């Protein structure tokens, strides 16, 4: 582990057994386009390649042995789109392919500050021709439609012919169940169909349309070749493959350089001319991009990342491996996150087909905190996304036979529920409260009152209403919520899940308070909203009544919260017997898991982190001690939360162990499934483990409090927090903690119980 | 409703809109073969025809949006087999078809004492040729492989040509989801394939084999034509259709009579010669059957039914409509029930494809009582069936990760679990206890100690073991059973369902006592069993400990049993709002139904009938009053039980109303789905409503007790009960009740609290 690249990821040997795994790790993206890190020249056995556009999907039918009312009849999955990476190279007629011949001096690197993937190697062909090869690839943060590639080939020991074929290929398919039952979906392979492909005037073009979602994609390409020798060029378009071919009379030591510009743009199919308009505009953009040139976008890429790291970086001294993991995770979050208000961040980002490109509650509870406190502009787009889904969520509520309110889908891209197993899908109503919670956190930190007034109140009211639909006041005068599944998916369809009830109460409270606020401060706005949504005093008072009377089960003997009403009545899980059988879900029928006291992930412990100030330290400690023993962490959403709470409770070694488990999950392929994509929620969990865990940051009543702790292995660490327009640098070392206001007006914060006013 | 046929079902007009419904009502069967009542000559629009062999099925794959460990990967469904009914008739070249021309004097009847379906009509062809037509059909109770038909055609106003084509047709398919999503299964239509068809020597033959279940079917046919005119005969075999064609020079008023003998025999495919052996044997049988002749089988049919009605009849004076319904139901039960120990009675008998020909707990809790107390020989075959499934149930237990014991499938033909929705399938563990309970009831009534010793104890122990696998002793010292679904499918995956817990305790108790009995009376048998099953003292004592400490929730305030631990915490169902939305399952997502206090069917009330002596009258009354209000009876298994308990509690009007709902369910197509087949459990429920309800019969500690009540509308009724080798006739009228011992040694019974010794 010497010589760890703390600002990037480096590979110094080609290990073809890890080719597909590394295609995930070296994937590039800008939140719109994402492409896996496969080589330009490809390999013979090319598995799990993929290029994705955030939010670009097609439908497939869901089937059920028994289907009931309200079951989604179809799902959708992110599509693998036109491959724009491919550059085939022939050296004196021999195809360049590192599986053959001899490869030397290999190095591949993704640089987190430059945002460029580079590769260098020397290759000796089977016949003995030696070349030096260099490639670069970037997906532009500045121009979101742009995928840029460059290859440089230099003959070392020969003069001869070098042929370069640069292509865009529309003949692509998703992974099917047949290829890989764990990842693949029920696609036939004809979901994305090329409807036009052409090449002329040095511009290649492929237009594709989805089979059933009425979405379309235009991909255009242009190339520029620089060389000293003679070169002839030809264009071909064949079988959904559009290519430029360069035949170069290469000379020893004279480099040949190809620049490849590929643009992607999607459209919603309305009528045929939308395709022409989109592609015409894209060709205009292509010419502009060519004019700007390669260096311009490399430069812009650096600028963008400079700002990102200035806002977001966490610096750690004392453990390069951790430092690398932390930055790798933040970098992938940036690459994955949609920032147009219409797309979000999927469970695997734009790096693979796992979870079908769906968005979950992961965004709100795990990922949004990172953006809220580092890049509030991006956070805003993520909350906007949920507002854009509100109409679909209302429709879903109706589908589920609720008279009022909105029910957000458990997993989705376009707003329709895609979960085919309701006990761990639709029954996880808590997603409504999670969204409401995170919106309030966003508004608090960003002071985006405009969002609150224009959109936030509406979401808060519509989500709160659903709790009145599914909950009820019992004879005890308390508000109960039956038949739900909490975050822990190893316990399903229970009554009064503590997480759900507290979060629902929080949702109701925030909705109530937001309406009162609106009524007082923006009476006209209130009138308009009240009319549109049919809000009246009675209903608002019912919000209030429900949240102040929320029923919370509590075990007076154990002095512990049961996860739900009946959790403590269930038998203990036999951990001795289930050794080697993780994740349990792969080895036991769900009902056997549901029957026992065993948790897949943080549930109550997550709640005690999120609504931190509702529980005292002793309570948290008792609960932590109890639930830790019975949690398998079979979900990647778990260890980061246990790390945070272990820190809060002073279990520093545990905190560090859990953190370590989470920080290099993908780089070290700990779950053995990173080939299918990175784990974005866990990546953000790493950030949370540091900021909320080691840094001890909490936001309460609009104020930040820190209680930093320095892990034993580290000599110092620092991080940056954006809050209410300020940027605060927090630096911790053996001597203590230092807070520095980097910009904005003075602000009061707390260091543990000590009040500090930070000034510049 | 005048002139009701109390010993049959009569139709006097052809209503083509009810053709498919009536094909169910006029279906014939003998527990082995069943065939729907479609006309010999067919109609142009021939829907929902079908011929079935009990237990003859093929597989299809089950699909799930999300599939977990222990989910069945395939299901199986009863196949529609070779059609042996068809007889096409041409009158001077015109096809006889009642949809065309004019039909007069139509009458169709199934006679419950003769077991023959007859039809008579006069038909005038579009061109004006008039014939008289008579047909008869029977499926022999005496020779189970035999389907016998006869048609008699007499020209009324012409001499001319009459062509008769008698066929067996192997080109048949099941109803698919495309035809009818409510009934059809995921079959492709090639599940039953003809592998050989031939005709020679007046014998037609079709051999078919299933695609994946390795089952085969031989169908053979022979015909005999009697007429006075000239007749030429030809044989054809074309496209899986094998036919005899008779061309007759018909003369006015001279009848032409065709007898058609069709035999069916299934085999388990092992190697190719099994087909030859089976068909050779069947042809020998066919010749024997032809020799015996038509009248012989009609005579045997009558004999068989004489005995059946002697054993089973319920006679009711004062309401012919009820009388007809009661006999119709009993007759269909007889037609549907498998009696070879390898087959059972499916939810729709052999009358249609609904529920895929699967067997459920319906047999044990609803249907077996009828056979136990009227035809114990048939009851024995039904309990034998469960013994034959024991190995498959052990395997299912293992699949579900249980170390010991057997878990009977919720729905099956061959023993494999076919339920694709575990919350209302595998979670209904109570089927284990239901089977154990009914076996004990059978043994008690039949005194079949041999069955107990050889097979019963083994079933009792293996079913009991499963409760130790899924239940546990909690800190209160009580035995709890979590995460189960009781009989009521509108409440799922709950803890301590009262029905399940009491029945599990009963299962454990009976297993414990059976083992002790075996050990004391048959020590060698015990040793053998104990060795085979690894039974030891510790385990047996644990059975005892579990049943004496069974946990039963009880609401001390309401003085009512909650259906399960949390039932009373759930909100009331809004019946006002759900008006017109029954069955609820077709209108609400399951989780919304699960969330509320609403029942599909008798659950606790069923328990209080089954384990009658565990509850006192006041308790039963309180429970009945509470649960009646919240039960929708969306299941056809419900009203008969409410009728019985209403009788017990003196709610005589209610009892009669529920009974009336159940007694003509199929004849009057009350659930609007009898087209897919009769409701066998409800049919047996009718019997139960009379015997256990109006008759007030209970079996306690090996003794029968009666508490008869005469419904207001009736002047008298009587029924027959087989018990411990005796046959008892119970007659009730306005003066009171009379008990008569028809055969066997004297026996003590109770009339209410009065002890009576019956002698012949």
Automatic annotation (TrEMBL), chains A, B:
<dbReference type="Pfam" id="PF03632">
    <property type="entry name" value="Glyco_hydro_65m"/>
</dbReference>
<dbReference type="GO" id="GO:0030246">
    <property type="term" value="F:carbohydrate binding"/>
</dbReference>
<keyword id="KW-0378">Hydrolase</keyword>
<dbReference type="Pfam" id="PF03636">
    <property type="entry name" value="Glyco_hydro_65N"/>
</dbReference>
<dbReference type="GO" id="GO:0005975">
    <property type="term" value="P:carbohydrate metabolic process"/>
</dbReference>
<comment type="similarity">
    <text>Belongs to the glycosyl hydrolase 65 family.</text>
</comment>
<protein>
    <submittedName>
        <fullName>Glycosyl hydrolase</fullName>
    </submittedName>
</protein>
<feature type="binding site">
    <location>
        <begin position="361"/>
        <end position="362"/>
    </location>
    <ligand>
        <name>substrate</name>
    </ligand>
</feature>
<dbReference type="GO" id="GO:0016757">
    <property type="term" value="F:glycosyltransferase activity"/>
</dbReference>
<dbReference type="InterPro" id="IPR017045">
    <property type="entry name" value="Malt_Pase/Glycosyl_Hdrlase"/>
</dbReference>
<keyword id="KW-0328">Glycosyltransferase</keyword>
<feature type="domain" description="Glycoside hydrolase family 65 central catalytic">
    <location>
        <begin position="327"/>
        <end position="688"/>
    </location>
</feature>
<dbReference type="Pfam" id="PF03633">
    <property type="entry name" value="Glyco_hydro_65C"/>
</dbReference>
<feature type="active site" description="Proton donor">
    <location>
        <position position="489"/>
    </location>
</feature>
<dbReference type="InterPro" id="IPR012341">
    <property type="entry name" value="6hp_glycosidase-like_sf"/>
</dbReference>
<dbReference type="GO" id="GO:0004553">
    <property type="term" value="F:hydrolase activity, hydrolyzing O-glycosyl compounds"/>
</dbReference>
<dbReference type="InterPro" id="IPR005194">
    <property type="entry name" value="Glyco_hydro_65_C"/>
</dbReference>
<feature type="domain" description="Glycoside hydrolase family 65 N-terminal">
    <location>
        <begin position="10"/>
        <end position="266"/>
    </location>
</feature>
<feature type="binding site">
    <location>
        <begin position="600"/>
        <end position="601"/>
    </location>
    <ligand>
        <name>substrate</name>
    </ligand>
</feature>
<dbReference type="InterPro" id="IPR011013">
    <property type="entry name" value="Gal_mutarotase_sf_dom"/>
</dbReference>
<dbReference type="InterPro" id="IPR008928">
    <property type="entry name" value="6-hairpin_glycosidase_sf"/>
</dbReference>
<dbReference type="InterPro" id="IPR005195">
    <property type="entry name" value="Glyco_hydro_65_M"/>
</dbReference>
<keyword id="KW-0808">Transferase</keyword>
<dbReference type="InterPro" id="IPR005196">
    <property type="entry name" value="Glyco_hydro_65_N"/>
</dbReference>
<dbReference type="InterPro" id="IPR037018">
    <property type="entry name" value="GH65_N"/>
</dbReference>
<feature type="domain" description="Glycoside hydrolase family 65 C-terminal">
    <location>
        <begin position="697"/>
        <end position="756"/>
    </location>
</feature>
């Amino acid at each position: 582990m010497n010589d760890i690249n703390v600002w990037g990821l480096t590979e110094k040997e080609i290990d073809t057994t890890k080719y597909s795994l590394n295609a995930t790790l070296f994937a590039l993206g800008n939140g719109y386009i994402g492409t896996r890190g496969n080589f330009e020249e490809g390999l013979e056995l090319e598995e799990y390649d993929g290029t994705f556009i955030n939010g670009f999907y097609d439908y497939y039918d869901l089937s059920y042995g028994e289907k009931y009312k309200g079951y989604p009849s179809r799902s959708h999955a992110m599509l693998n789109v036109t491959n724009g990476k491919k550059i085939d190279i022939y050296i004196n007629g021999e195809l360049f392919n590192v599986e053959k011949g001899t490869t030397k001096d290999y190095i591949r690197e993704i640089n987190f500050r430059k945002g460029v993937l580079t590769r260098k190697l020397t290759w000796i062909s089977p016949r003995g021709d030696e070349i030096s090869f260099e490639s670069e690839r970037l997906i532009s943060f500045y121009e979101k439609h742009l995928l840029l590639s460059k290859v440089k080939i230099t003959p070392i020991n020969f003069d001869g012919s070098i042929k370069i074929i640069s292509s865009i290929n529309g003949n692509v398919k998703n992974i099917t169940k047949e290829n890989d039952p764990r990842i693949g979906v029920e696609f036939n392979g004809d979901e994305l169909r090329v409807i036009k492909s052409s090449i002329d005037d040095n511009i290649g073009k492929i237009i594709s349309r989805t089979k059933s979602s009425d979405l379309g994609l235009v991909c255009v390409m242009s190339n520029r070749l620089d060389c000293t020798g003679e070169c002839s060029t030809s264009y071909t378009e064949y079988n959904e493959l559009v290519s430029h071919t360069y035949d170069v009379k290469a000379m020893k030591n004279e480099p040949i350089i190809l620049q490849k510009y590929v643009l992607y743009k999607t459209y919603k199919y309305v009528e045929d001319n939308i395709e022409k308009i989109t592609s015409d505009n894209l060709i205009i953009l292509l010419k502009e991009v060519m004019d700007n040139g390669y260096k311009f976008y490399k430069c812009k890429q650096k600028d963008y990342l400079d700002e990102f790291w200035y806002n977001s970086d966490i610096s750690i001294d004392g453990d390069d491996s951790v430092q690398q993991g932390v930055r790798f995770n933040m970098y992938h979050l940036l690459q994955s996150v949609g920032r147009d208000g219409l797309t979000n961040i999927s469970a695997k980002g734009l790096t693979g087909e796992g979870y079908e490109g769906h968005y979950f509650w992961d965004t709100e509870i795990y990922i949004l905190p990172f953006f809220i406190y580092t890049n509030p502009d991006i956070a805003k787009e993520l909350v906007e996304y949920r507002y854009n889904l509100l109409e679909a969520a209302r429709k879903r509520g109706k589908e589920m036979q609720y008279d009022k309110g909105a029910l957000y889908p458990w997993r989705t891209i376009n707003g329709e529920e895609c979960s085919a197993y309701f006990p761990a899908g639709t029954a996880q109503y808590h997603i409504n409260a999670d969204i409401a919670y995170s919106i309030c956190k966003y508004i608090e930190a960003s002071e985006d009152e405009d969002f609150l007034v224009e959109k936030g109140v509406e979401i808060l009211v519509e989500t709160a209403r659903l709790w009145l639909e599914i909950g009820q006041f019992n004879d005890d005068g308390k508000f109960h919520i039956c038949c739900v599944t909490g975050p822990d998916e190893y316990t399903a369809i229970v009554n009064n899940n503590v997480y759900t009830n507290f979060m629902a109460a929080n949702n109701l409270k925030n909705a109530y308070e937001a309406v009162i606020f609106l009524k007082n401060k923006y009476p006209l706005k209130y009138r308009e909203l009240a009319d549109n949504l049919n809000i009246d005093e009675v209903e608002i008072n019912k919000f209030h009544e429900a949240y102040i009377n929320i029923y919370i089960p509590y075990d007076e003997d154990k002095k512990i919260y049961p996860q739900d009403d009946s959790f403590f009545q269930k038998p203990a899980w036999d951990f001795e017997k289930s050794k080697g059988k993780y994740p349990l879900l792969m080895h036991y029928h769900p009902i056997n898991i549901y029957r026992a006291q065993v948790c897949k992930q943080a549930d109550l412990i997550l709640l005690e982190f999120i609504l931190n100030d509702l529980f005292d330290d002793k309570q948290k400690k008792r609960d932590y001690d109890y639930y830790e023993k019975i949690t398998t962490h079979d979900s990647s959403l778990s260890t980061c939360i246990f790390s945070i709470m272990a820190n809060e409770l002073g279990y520093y070694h545990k905190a560090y162990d859990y953190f370590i488990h989470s920080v290099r999950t993908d780089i070290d392929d700990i779950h053995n499934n990173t080939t299918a994509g990175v784990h974005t929620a866990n990546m953000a969990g790493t950030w949370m483990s540091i900021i909320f865990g080691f840094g001890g940051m909490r936001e309460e009543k609009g104020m930040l409090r820190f209680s930093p702790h320095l892990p034993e292995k580290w000599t110092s660490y620092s991080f940056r927090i954006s809050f209410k327009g300020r940027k605060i640098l927090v630096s911790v070392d053996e001597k203590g903690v230092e807070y520095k206001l980097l910009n904005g007006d003075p602000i009061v914060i707390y260091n543990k119980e000590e009040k500090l006013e930070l000034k510049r």
